[in-house]
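ok trying again, last paste got cut off:
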Amino acid sequence: MPAEHGVPKDRTSSGEHFSTLDRNGIAKLVRNNPSAQVISMTNLQNRFGENGEKFMPSLFQAIQTVRVRSADGEIIELIRDGHHRAKYLDNNFDTLIGTEESPGRFPHFRIPKQDVTKDVLFMFGEKQTGEKPTALSMTQYWLDVLPYTHQHAEVEKKRTISHLLTGWQNAVGRTLAERYSGFAALCVMTDPTLNFSDYFATEPDGEKLVETLSEMQNIISQANIPRAEVKKEAALLIYEDAESIGGREEGKRQLQGLFGLPSVASKFEDKDLPEYNDALFGAFRRAGGKITNNIDLYYKIFIDPAYTKSAIRTILAAQSPLRQLQALDHQMAIDRRKEEYKQKTGKTDLTVIEERFLSKGFVDPSFIMTISEEITTARRRITFLPPGSEQGKEIQRRIDGLLNSSRDQIHAALNNLQSAVADSLLVKKVEQSATSEQPITEGRELLFLRGFSRNLKQQLERAVAEKEALSAKNQQLSERISDLEQVLDDAGIIYQKEDK
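nice, full thing came through this time. structure:
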């Protein structure tokens, strides 16, 4: 056998089995292993050169494969070690090997492949079982391929996620995969607000789902991929129409798997799915490189029961989904406060003032009702004043100030309004005393004053408190002056106050 072959004809000792691949064989192997599309160009150039000038058949290592049994019982051949080598030879077969009619640089080279299933099963301890298996499970394959993926740090994260996305159906079976895609599984698995064991507890075949998700979680942990990056990396593969997960159509199918999740399925009817999946895919395309930021937003609106079908459609169609979501969240928060306020107060309808302050974020019913009462009282007070009077204008300015005040200004604005109303009464009293007219406490004014008595008492209490504070301050100043004068006198210095 020429040295170019680089592999014995056949060897089965120690569970090893060698064979060779022709043009169709290597093409089929790469086609059945889409993760081979995730390659490190640095690795390829270091090993084979930019134009294949470093390729040496005698040093070519066999592509290692294992047999894997899917959950549906199908046996598939997956690459264990040699994704880069397989992809390189598939791309450059005609140049390196060629055909009889058009031979390549190494026409006698045969691509070596080594089936190591038996040895890998031995490593997993399967030899101790009763009936010896002849293939790995999908989750065993995920674990076994990790060390070889780790050798290529440049693409480790992307290839690991590709393995999980494309292997999901083989891990759980076609029926479950048609309802929950690998992408949906990764989203739930990495959601810090969900316990996926509880989330799928009542679902058909929930035990199988939870078992597989636990295995995936273990893979992610061993691959040292931060939880927050898993969903983003998967979303990027979908956005890129990555061949490593099957291209655009497979990407759309992965997205559609979100609609099968328990808290999502209840929002949609079957007839809605094509429209909304197209809308979601369209949002992915528009997001561009920002998809890694937007994916958490998209996942949130689907998984959270608070977001209706209509809300989802609006956000997916928005040019700025984040701003649209923030506006929607703000309005939903206001609506919740209004409902809670109605329940606490027993009201069915709200006044304009109540709605305004609930919209500002105030939630205490007693405080909102106090504000509403004070504004109503102030407006009534204006009706007792002459049209266009300065007192009426000042009260209206204070009302406007209260209505437009922020949370940290609200108490001061309320005090200002109460002071303005009280001041208008004092002005009225002074005017009447000067003209010897009837006292303010007669007629309609008396009714107003009685209704305003609480406000007046508050104003009086504040005035008394301020006076007491000033009296205490004056006392402190008097003592300070006395001390300073004593110091000057002891020093023999005569102090005389300067005229201003």
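cool. The chain has four domains: 1-142, 155-317, 359-461, 466-500. The longest helix spans residues 453-490.
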